Amino acid sequence: MKCLLFLGVVVIIGNHAVSGAAIPNKHKEEPKEELKPEEQQGEDWELNLEYGRYLKEVVQALESDPEFRKKLETAEIDDIKSGKIARELHFVNHNIRTKLDELKRREVERLRHLAVKEHEKATGVDRAKLKMPGHLDLKSHTRFEVEDLKNLIVKTTQDLEKVDKQRKQEFTTYEMEKEFERQQELNALDEEHKKQEEQKHEEEMKKHKEHPKLHEPGSKQQYEEVWEEQDHMKSEDFDPKTFFKLHGKTKNRFVDVAVDITCSYDELDQNYDLNIGE
Fold this sequence. Notes:
Elements (H helix, E strand, L loop, with lengths): L4 H15 L17 H11 L4 H12 L2 H9 L2 H6 L11 H30 L22 H42 L3 H19 L10 H10 L10 H7 L6 H19 L7
């Protein structure tokens, strides 16, 4: 049977500390089913103490070291109560020390979460309404995995579509306001100047219709445009292999799509630039 001397000593201390303060129960209690010693210990440590689980796991880890357990068995009760026995931790097995480090890390994390919850409760924060970052895979906080890249690309695509939709709406509003102002100006002109302005407007509209259309993302035309305008290379020297190396194109489709999305940003800027007259 596993020895839990340290645990037992603290339990005994706790029992002595509260035995004199017990409040008598006037009502006769119904008999309860007796628990085995192991069950009773688990119940005591996990229900009676807020940090009981942490304490129990630390004790169990320490008592798995034979040398430390021997020192516990021969130690004076006052040395245990005062914490003097803690000095023997320097001689505990390395693997057990590693285990203790992990237990402490988990306990600190638990307390951190409790503190956050208390703060949210005090400030009225509704956790259900908090938005989690969609561009990250939160299952791992230390490694960048496939899901991280996938989430990043999908989120970027979604955001780009939202930007495109928003710019279309802004551009439509801009065109309507511009047309309203134009009509107001025309109404203030005589017939001769009105005809001149109408002719000028028709020329601008014709030029606007001839504005180059967006290239399909991932198309050869888009790559050639990037090759000339961003890479400052000659069109006749276009080489797909060189282009893919310059822009990170690989056999990984996730990366390829990310490159296509990046190239598409400039296309959107050109199509919905409100600073361009036509």
